[in-house]
Amino acid sequence: MLLDVLRPGALSGANGDDQYLQRVLRHGDTTDAAAQLHALASDGIEAEVTQKASFQTIEAQIAAGRAVPCGYLHRGPVEQPGGGGHWLIVVGHTPTHLIVHDPFGKADLVSGATIDASARFRHTKTLLFA
Q1: Cα separation of 83 and 77, whole Å?
Q2: What residues contact residue 27 under an 8 Å CB cut-off, 6+ apart?
Q3: Which spans in the chain are helix H?
Q4: CA–CA distance, 111 with 27 (Å, rounded to integer)
């Protein structure tokens, strides 16, 4: 989803994301940030990972025209999240919400469940950052 936002048309066909997935898997698991960085680099995109981002960091990146991938633990209740992690892409914001693309759908962070179908341009208010 990030590559599609940063380089529209870089992936071809209805399942273009599978092309990117194959690049990621050559370098590791999809939840591994280093594997994602290597795959993005193969498309000429320089990126870095931080665990110190804030809402202001995200707003600044969006203002600069960059979509922002955010990873979070997504299984189990909010008091005790777990799982291998999940990524979504922040593509915008309003004064009260982040606007995200998420292939899993809407995350219910209170229960740890995923509801609905794939989320594109979904406004989300409840989002935690690692």
Answers
A1: 11
A2: 34, 35, 38, 39
A3: 2-6, 16-25, 33-41, 55-63
A4: 32
Q: How do residues 70-98 score in pLDDT, each as one tens digit? A: 887 777 777 887 777 778 889 898 888 88
How many CB atoms within 10 Å of residue 40?
A: 20
Q: Which residue has the tokens 């981002």?
A: 53
> Model-level pTM?
0.71
- Residues 71 and 51: their CA atoms lie apart, in Å, by 9
Distance CA 3, CA 127 (A): 22
CA angle 124, 121, 51 (to 5 degrees): 55
Task: Please give the DSSP secondary-structure letter assigned to residue 19.
Answer: H
Query: Could you give the CA distance from residue 10 to residue 70 in angstroms, rounded to a whole number?
Result: 21
Percent of the chain residues topping a pLDDT of 70: 81
**Closest alpha carbon to 3 in 85, 19, 105, 130:** 19
Nearest alpha-carbon partner for 126 in 118, 9, 115: 115
